[in-house]
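Lecture notes, part 5. Sequence design as translation. It can be helpful to think of inverse folding as translation between two languages: the language of shapes and the language of residues. The source text, in structure tokens, appears below.
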């Protein structure tokens, strides 16, 4: 089943075409990667999917629902989660509250119940705290639940951001350079962890990554962007040996 479909998507910043004729057909349960040199338009694609930017042209549909024109919080409510290239946490809130706050996109109590702390509010809050603590335990952050997010080391902040993205109960998770700043041993662990959360949370995953070891090691299909255009698409083996891809990456290191 096609979960996410993008058709003839284009996006302009002034007169600059950041994304041109972008097409995507992502199937439920798939793990797909988007790669390309710096400035290729990868993060712009994520921002278009999640409503941070509105596509200048084209259609983006999630389970048949048009996303173009929707706000980020409306798209989050459809169960699309994401992380960011540059970590975006609520820096002055606690680790626990960073995860708790993500649940409210799916909460079902009224403002009056919240104000008076009655009815569904108490039951929902208990559920939210319990699920938040469970996620922190999975990410080995439970002992830091009361710590202020900005005081965490970089690697733990990255883990917290992924935990927060999972708190909305996503069907589709977009990971923007999850291996940024990690050493080779940490990347190996991240590869295993991404595969694990995919199975545990029954996720479809779309990721952007510069670490080719991670992309080639776990992605079933890869799309290559260059200057906003799709350069190639296919399984890792085909991408590694595609002459156009190798040419685009000259000066950025080998593929694989």
């Amino acid at each position: 089943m096609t979960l996410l479909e993008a058709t003839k998507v284009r996006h302009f910043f002034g007169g600059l075409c950041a994304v041109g004729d972008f097409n995507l057909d992502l199937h439920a349960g798939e793990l797909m990667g988007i790669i390309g040199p710096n400035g290729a338009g990868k993060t712009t694609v994520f921002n278009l999917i999640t409503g941070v930017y509105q596509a200048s042209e084209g259609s983006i549909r999630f389970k048949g629902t048009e996303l173009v024109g929707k706000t980020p919080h409306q798209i989050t409510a459809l169960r699309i989660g994401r992380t960011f290239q540059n970590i975006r946490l609520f820096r002055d809130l606690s680790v626990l509250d960073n995860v708790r706050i993500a649940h409210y996109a799916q909460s079902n109590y009224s403002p009056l119940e919240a104000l008076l702390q009655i009815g569904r509010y108490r039951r929902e809050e208990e559920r939210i705290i319990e699920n938040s603590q469970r996620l922190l335990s999975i990410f080995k952050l439970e002992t830091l639940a009361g710590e202020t997010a900005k005081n965490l080391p970089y690697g733990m902040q990255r883990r917290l951001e992924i935990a927060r993205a999972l708190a909305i109960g996503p069907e589709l998770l977009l990971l923007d350079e999850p291996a940024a700043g990690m050493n080779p041993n940490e990347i190996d662990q991240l590869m295993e962890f991404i595969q694990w959360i995919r199975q545990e949370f029954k996720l479809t995953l779309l990721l952007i990554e510069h670490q080719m070891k991670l992309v080639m090691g776990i992605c079933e299909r890869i799309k290559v962007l260059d200057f906003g255009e799709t350069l190639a698409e296919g399984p890792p083996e085909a991408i590694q040996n595609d002459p156009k891809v190798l040419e685009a990456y000259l000066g950025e290191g080998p593929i694989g």
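The translated text above is only one of many valid answers, since several sequences can fold into similar shapes. The mean pLDDT is 89.
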